[in-house]
Specification:
By secondary structure, this protein is an all-alpha fold. It contains 11 helices and no strands. Helix 1 packs antiparallel against helix 3, helix 3 runs antiparallel to helix 8 and helix 9 runs parallel beside helix 10. The longest helix is centred in the first third of the chain and has 24 residues.
């Protein structure tokens, strides 16, 4: 197992929650402290939406990381042995994860992230990495285009799903600030085996270069972010990239 699946699952929860919490903060008439109790109160009204958005958003990214082509997965889902057994999204996810081990790991990570939200916080990087035995997650020195693309799609789509769920009234440029922060955070779980140490005075480009590990990964991330935002928002995002 690579870092990809647990990374994109945490990215969904972190980004969906950020979309909701950022929208709530914008609606407040004065600054409020984001305590665990407040996070629980805000998220409580959206807990039932989490599973629906999880299935809607994660299906394609999981397929990207587990199959070489969409046709390969479609052939399995349409096969005489499998097609009659597909009665719910849960059944689909058993096959999109490809192996029983990957499906069990998906369920474990879903529950772990959900429990963290129930506790009033998004799972921290330290808690994420602490959940795996030594050697399970690895640093990646290569250009993992499919995985970077899948994670970036999850971050962008989940964030805006949270914004929509919270009925955010603005699509201002501050959205890019949230997304850059989420990507800087989430890319560490994909390409590293522990949190990345960064100096306080490190600028954004240098920070992304460090977490993305190479120019190819960073280029894929930025291009995917732009394309996914253009698919969601009817505006040109180029100036923000």
């Amino acid at each position: 197992m690579s870092n990809a699946q647990p990374a994109i699952i945490r990215a969904f929860f972190a980004s969906f929650a950020e979309g909701i919490l950022s929208a709530d903060a914008e609606k407040a008439t004065e600054p409020v402290e984001l305590t665990p109790q407040r996070v629980k109160q805000i998220m409580l009204t959206h807990y039932e939406e989490i599973s629906k958005h999880f299935f809607d958003i994660l299906f394609n990214p999981l397929a990207i990381i587990h199959y070489d082509t969409a046709e390969e997965l479609i052939a399995i889902l349409k096969s005489p042995e499998v097609a009659p057994t597909l009665n719910s999204p849960v059944d689909l996810f058993r096959h999109v994860c490809r192996t029983e081990e990957a499906h069990e790991d998906m369920v474990t990570e879903y529950r772990r992230n959900f429990a963290s939200l129930l506790g009033g916080k998004v799972m921290s990087l330290d808690d994420f990495f602490a959940g795996f035995p030594e050697g399970y997650l690895t640093d990646s020195a290569g250009h993992q285009e499919r995985e970077v693309r899948a994670l970036t799609q999850v971050v962008v789509r989940s964030f805006f799903a949270g914004r929509k769920a919270s009925q955010a009234t603005t699509t201002s440029g501050t959205n890019q600030v949230y997304l850059f922060r989420l990507l800087l955070d989430s890319m560490q779980t994909l390409l590293h085996s522990s949190p990345v140490a960064m100096d306080d005075d490190l600028d954004l480009n240098a920070a992304f270069a460090k977490v993305c590990r190479n120019e190819g990964n960073m280029k894929t991330m930025l291009q995917t972010m732009q394309q996914t935002m253009q698919d969601i928002l009817p505006v040109d995002m180029t100036p923000f990239l």
